[in-house]
């Protein structure tokens, strides 16, 4: 099961918060606007009604007429949506030109106080204001002023449209701001990851400084852990070095003695066993070093690391006239020099043992890695056997001396330095084998 990343969590929370917040702002703003516009409409209609009543005169025949037209010209225009009407119980008396032949329902004006109601008008829903007055003749006159609610709805819709555009812009700005804030806030986490990776790759020894207060304790703890590991590794190295030294000295004495007896069967066995023990010792020491090597790493460098090994190899294979050539740029590798020398000496020893005339060592650096190839012109290895040879003790040709441990040691050490080691047939089609070692580049390459 994968857990949601911090960034995803924050983004989701932020998105929910922005959506909810803007929804609340949008709804409350449009409700507020509507109530405000309604108040203005109501006040306006009430004023018109009061004006209509003030302008109404009753003539000698008892019929109402207006002293002058109402001040708002919209009552005079057809289709304007603004209407007034005066009627009595027996029927219509006067109406605004805007009404044309239509009329308003005079029951909506039913009390001496001003009342208002939403009701169907001549052109759809309308807001109707009305009141009654008693004429001098004792008749009840119904005064009505109305306006289509589409005016109100149109204003509200316009406002909502504008508000939506504005809120969308605000949402975009908020999300962008949150994304920037998130980026800024989580940058130390990226740095933390990079710092741990650098320690792992051997490019840094400690977490470094400064860290934000939330991360500083973690970085400090990691540094303390690295301190204690480094101390443990150092102690283990000293101990295994002492052990090897103690055993090797005695073993060298035994080997010397065995050599003097080599012409007797028992002496030959003794000598072979001594050499086997020496090789086993190498193997266990290499394993101890590989395990210890998971601590902080010292760097090795090429071609410097090769020089002593090449002269040793040339001497070792003196009788067979094998030519060792090395070719590659200056490079630093994230591996302990002793481990690197051990790997190289095993690869060079194999190549020298199997080559007929030439061993080429070349290396390249790219994308933070160094790839080194040791190629011989020997008989080559069957493809099917290539991987098996890394198993301790496995050897293909019992005629050639060896203990079958070299490749196992070399791979252990390479992997302890987060590298890889593989065997492959020569790439150029000639017979021979290439051992390919890939390691992380060191800090200063
Ligand atoms: N370059 C090579 N060409 C041909 N065969 C090889 C080559 N390198 C290794 N081998 C084969 O792989 C086997 C294992 O090699 P490895 O280095 O592990 O052991 P070794 O050389 O036999 O003994 P040791 O290295 O322990 O003295 C060898 O015995 C040999 O058969
Ligand atoms: Mg070997």
Would you write up a description of this structure?
By secondary structure, this protein is an alpha+beta fold. The protein has three domains: 6-155, Beta-Lactamase; 206-296; 297-445, Heat Shock Protein 90. It is 49% helix and 20% strand. The chain contains seven helices and 14 strands. It has helices at residues 6-55, 149-201, 216-260, 265-292, 306-316, 337-354, 406-416; strands at 56-58, 64-66, 82-88, 91-95, 115-121, 124-134, 140-148, 300-302, 323-327, 331-333, 358-366, 369-376, 420-425, 433-440. Strands 4-3-7-6-5 form a five-stranded antiparallel beta sheet. Strands 9-11-12-14-13 form a five-stranded mixed beta sheet. A two-stranded antiparallel sheet has the order 1-2. α6 runs antiparallel to α7 (406-416). The longest helix has 53 residues, at 149-201. It is rod-shaped and about 160 Å long. The two termini are 39 Å apart. 23% of the residues are buried. Bound molecules: adenosine-5'-triphosphate (ATP) and magnesium ion. Magnesium ion binds at residues 346, 349-350, 402, 406.
Layout of secondary structure:
Layout: H1 6-55, E1 56-58, E2 64-66, E3 82-88, E4 91-95, E5 115-121, E6 124-134, E7 140-148, H2 149-201, H3 216-260, H4 265-292, E8 300-302, H5 306-316, E9 323-327, E10 331-333, H6 337-354, E11 358-366, E12 369-376, H7 406-416, E13 420-425, E14 433-440
Parallel strand pairs: 9-11
Antiparallel strand pairs: 1-2, 3-4, 3-7, 5-6, 6-7, 8-10, 11-12, 12-14, 13-14
Residues 279, 346, 350-351, 354, 376, 378, 381, 389, 395-397, 402-408, 433 line the site of adenosine-5'-triphosphate.
């Amino acid at each position: 099961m994968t857990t949601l990343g911090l960034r995803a969590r924050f983004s989701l929370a932020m998105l929910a918060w922005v959506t909810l917040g803007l929804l609340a702002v949008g709804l409350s703003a449009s409700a507020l606007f509507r109530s405000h516009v309604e108040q203005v409409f109501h006040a306006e209609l009430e004023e018109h009604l009061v004006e209509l009543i003030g302008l109404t005169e009753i003539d000698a025949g008892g019929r109402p007429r207006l002293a002058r037209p109402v001040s708002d010209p919209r009552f005079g225009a057809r289709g304007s949506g603004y209407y007034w009407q005066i009627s009595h119980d027996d029927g219509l008396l006067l109406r605004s030109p805007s009404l044309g032949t239509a009329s308003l329902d005079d029951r909506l004006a039913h009390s001496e106080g001003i009342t208002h109601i939403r009701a169907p008008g001549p052109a759809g829903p309308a807001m109707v204001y009305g009141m009654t007055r008693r004429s001098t003749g004792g008749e009840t006159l119904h005064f009505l002023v109305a306006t289509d609610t589409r005016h109100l709805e149109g204003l509200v819709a316009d406002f909502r449209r504008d508000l939506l555009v504005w809120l969308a812009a605000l949402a975009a700005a908020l999300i962008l701001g949150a994304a920037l804030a998130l980026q800024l806030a989580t940058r130390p986490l990226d740095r933390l990851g990079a710092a741990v990776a650098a320690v792992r790759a051997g490019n840094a020894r400690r977490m470094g400084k400064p860290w934000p207060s939330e991360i500083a304790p973690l970085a400090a703890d990691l540094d303390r852990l690295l301190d204690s590991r480094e101390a443990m590794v150092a102690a283990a190295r000293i101990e295994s070095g002492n052990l090897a030294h103690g055993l090797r000295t005695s073993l060298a004495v035994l080997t010397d003695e065995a050599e003097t007896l080599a012409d007797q069967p028992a002496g030959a066995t003794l000598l072979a066993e001594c050499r086997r023990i020496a090789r086993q010792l190498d193997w266990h020491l290499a394993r101890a070093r590989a395990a210890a090597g998971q601590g902080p790493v010292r760097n090795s460098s090429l071609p410097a690391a090769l020089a002593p090994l090449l002269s040793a190899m040339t001497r070792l294979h003196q009788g067979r006239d094998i030519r060792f050539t090395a070719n590659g740029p200056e490079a630093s590798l994230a591996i302990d020099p002793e481990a690197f020398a051990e790997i190289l000496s095993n690869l060079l020893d194999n190549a020298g043992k199997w080559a007929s005339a030439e061993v080429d060592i070349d290396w390249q650096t790219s994308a933070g890695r160094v790839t080194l190839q040791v190629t011989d012109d020997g008989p080559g290895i069957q493809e099917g056997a290539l991987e098996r040879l890394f198993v301790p003790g496995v050897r293909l040709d019992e005629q050639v001396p060896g203990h079958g441990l070299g490749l196992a040691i070399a791979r252990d050490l390479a992997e302890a330095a987060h590298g890889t080691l593989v065997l492959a047939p020569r790439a150029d089609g000639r017979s021979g084998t290439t051992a390919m070692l890939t390691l992380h580049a060191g800090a200063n390459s």
